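Bench notes, afternoon.
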Amino acid sequence: MKGFDFDFLTITVTDVVDILFVAFLIYYTYNLIKNTLAVNLLLGMFIILILWFVVDALNMRLLSTIINKFMSVGIIALIVIFQPEIRRFLLLIGKNTFLQKNKAWWGYLFGSRDIERDNLVRIKPIIDACKSMKKSRTGALIVFVKFYDDQLFANSCELIDSKISKRLLESIFQKYSPLHDGAVVIAENKIKSASCILPLTDNDKLPPQFGLRHRAGIGVSETTDAVAVIVSEETGEIAYAKQGRVRMNVSFGELEKLLNKDF
């Protein structure tokens, strides 16, 4: 392919596309790992890589052999160490495809536009329950997933599989309920399970006032495509966790917009 010749450098259209794809990959990788422990892990691996080049250049045979053995399994180690980030990356790519971004148009064309309009009606019981729990300062953690993972949730949850209702959510998180500890998982327009034990986030830069509910909500949003609504027991404030990030002091108007978009 004909390109532009700058004597010492020849740039083709393919090179430009290649650079853009690499920049795109770096941008998404940065978004996935910033403010997580993966940054420190990546930095550590980068330091080992530099050390490998240095000892090889200095012909330090013993140390070079040890690092070579470590680097020979580097790809497998990367997959194991960064498994949550790789999962999130694939989910992020899938959620930003053309079909996903334009699903409203596809729904309109194929006659499912009414289902989209009914979404506000479906989330109203959740908003009403959050209003009530905020007023009474009842701690709550509600997780929304697009696909219910039996392996992730069923083993540590009480299966409910019930229609979403304000009273049911309030009764689950009521202080003396045997199910109030843990999270409620909502999927397929149903309360699928309650009292779920979720993995906590490894992010060590969170504010110290964040309790287990906030850390569990952030943690599940890091490792899956789930979003989480957290009601603070101490202050009654509502937080919204998505992709490992948390938005604090969410108003009910904002919560309605967020859930309408993500749920």
